[in-house]
Amino acid sequence: MCCESKRRFLLLYATQKGQAKAIAEEIWQQAGAHGLEADMHCISEMDKYNLETEKDPVVIVISTTGTGDPPDTARKFVKKIQDKTLPPDHFAHLQYGLLGLGDSEYMFFCNGGRTVDRRLQELGAQHFYDTGLADDSVGLELVVDPWIDGLWLALKEALQLQKEKEDMNNAVSSSLSTAPHAVHELKLSSEVQNLKLEDEGARGSDILSQKLDNINLVAPARDTEPSLVHSVPPLSQSALNIPALPPEYIEVEFQDIQGENPHLSSLISEGRTFEVPVTRAVQLTREDAIKTALLLELDIADTAFEYQPGDAFCVICPNNVSEVEKLLHILGLSEKGDDFVCVKVKQGTKKKGAVCPQHIPERSTLKFILTWCLEIRAIPKKAFLRALVECTSDAREKRRLQELCSRQGASDYTHFIRDSNVCLLDLLHAFPSCKPSLSLLIEHLPKLQARSYSVSSSNLYQPGRLCFVFNVVEFPAGPSRPVSRKGVCTGWLAELVAPLLHTSKNSQGTKGEIFSTEKVSIFPRPNNAFHLPADPSVPFIMVGPGTGIAPFIGFLQHRQKLREEHTDWEFGETWLFFGCRHQDRDYLFKQLQCFLKNGTLTHLKVCFSRESSTAEVAPPKYVQDVLRLCAKEVARVLLKERGYFYVCGDKKHMADDVSDAVVDILSMEMEADKLEAMKSLAMLREAKRYLQDVWS
């Protein structure tokens, strides 16, 4: 028994959308094949483990949410370990390895994991295995898979070292205390050009070796390029390492009962929800604009919903009705959509600690689950593909799904599934012999997440009203997607308010506005930093091209009302840099001129990226170009007057370019090299005077 206990390790996960939990479950499943036992818990279940007394190695898988925050499930844990009264040797006995999940498209990459890692180190904990940081923008598996592969040797070495220490503790405790701690090093990052993977056997995965002549997979000569449904050598001729088959753990029973579906508020764990009417809808762009931008106004007067300009809030949205109907048809359940189902854990399942997903009601109709509970547009994970293999009858299709979930097919998975935003319906269309069960979908599809939007109003300026602005997202048809689609939430909202927009165009060429009784369910998501300066005399700069201007409308409304109510206050200057494609098609808020005229806005700088010009010197096309033209003023506001700088909008194609422009401006105006300028920008971020609200 003593020996067996030494093979145990503690496995903790902290998840926001389920990815960290799924990876922890993969580690738990593989552990047995390596003679180890993972004691797995959510990090929030602090009554089930105790790091203060933990002797065995600890493995932590943790994601990042929001603007670099730990996931909600880790908040209590993080608060506990950040207690400033803890001594620096509080966790000196602890050995751990940490895998952080993040997205480098966002600021503070993997900051949830980094925060926990840094604090554990400060409290004396030791790495037995180097930290891995996986990047969802290029594919988590590029770091996750090799990190897990290397974990087993590191765990065994840590356990062996622990056993030797315990055996020799009384005799040589003093010498051991000064001995260097064994660390199994694995340098990992998302830049994996130099990463070499060695195939050391199954490592808990299935090994699949198939000869083409056995299953007659000779492709027509014209198929020389790979696609979602077709591979080429060497992959098509390779033996494959595929993940272990996830154990089934859900069963669904149809019930002959009547009743009502749960209220949408029961699906949300983040706090109180509010069902509020849409009182106004305006199309801000012309019909010939590349993107369609809508402004919606919600009536929150009879609710306890509170917000500040700069906050965000979430909209609870359903899946597309026609996509749900298609899925029911493929499942052979078209006639049972309105039947009530009971979802429960399968008796005798081999899945450790199996519980019904929290986002699935105990009793509801099948259509309710597919419409409001499951993210049917989610990009399928490799574990899901592995499970779909077993539901596929055609040999060619089966092999291709095996390739896509294999280690050898990682590049094809990234290109044809992940980067192509392929969803379950696309897969079932591409692989028609695949007939998954309803229980499999509930096991593998994640929770349908509420969508977050920036508030574009001020409750001081418009009491009882909340406005927000969004582009209707479009996903065009392509090789891996047979039909075009709109965004889950933006498409639904656009359809919801369509009757309001079918009116005659007004004089500005945008569609008119009328009132409505349609309702949406929302809940607040306060932003702890992206707010106006507490001191109104402090100047600030706002950069928000396209719909990135949304929170700044709220800023300016709020500032205008403060100026009206407090005529004796001193107010700092305000700058707004706005950009769009065409002045006459997608200049979203021409009323900005009103803020300029009444003095609320001191400086307005606008640029148009697709406008042709006959001027001898072409005007700037992008906000970062206009910033550079105002370099001295920008530097003055930031350096001399200790002002604030706000950026809102697209991360990949704008926010990084703006950041680069600010570095160039600081370098030039400080007469310093680029490194010094980057340090100055980092200090502005640290002081929360350079703030971003961005998305990818």
Explain what this protein looks like in three dimensions.
- Pfam families: FAD_binding_1, Flavodoxin_1, NAD_binding_1.
- This protein is of the alpha/beta class and 696 residues long.
- It folds into three domains: 7-163, Flavodoxin domain (Rossmann fold, 3-Layer(aba) Sandwich); 250-444, NADPH-cytochrome p450 Reductase, Chain A, domain 3 (Up-down Bundle); 540-694, Nucleotide-binding domain of ferredoxin-NADP reductase (FNR) module (Rossmann fold, 3-Layer(aba) Sandwich), CATH 3.40.50.
- Helix 16 links the parallel strand 21 and strand 22 (603-608).
- Helix 18 (631-640) crosses helix 19 and helix 19 packs across helix 20.
- Residues 1-6, 172-222 and 503-512 have low confidence and may be disordered.
For the record, what CATH class of the largest domain applies? Mainly Alpha
What's the tally of helices?
Answer: 20
Largest sheet composition: 6 strands, parallel
Distance between the termini: 51 Å
Low-pLDDT windows of residues: 1-6, 172-222, 503-512
Can you identify the CATH superfamily of the largest domain? NADPH-cytochrome p450 Reductase, Chain A, domain 3
Mean pLDDT reading:
87
Pfam families: FAD_binding_1 (PF00667), Flavodoxin_1 (PF00258), NAD_binding_1 (PF00175)
Catalytic activity: 2 cob(II)alamin + A + 2 H2O + 2 H(+) = 2 aquacob(III)alamin + AH2
GO molecular function: [methionine synthase] reductase (NADPH) activity; flavin adenine dinucleotide binding; FMN binding
GO biological process, one term: cobalamin metabolic process
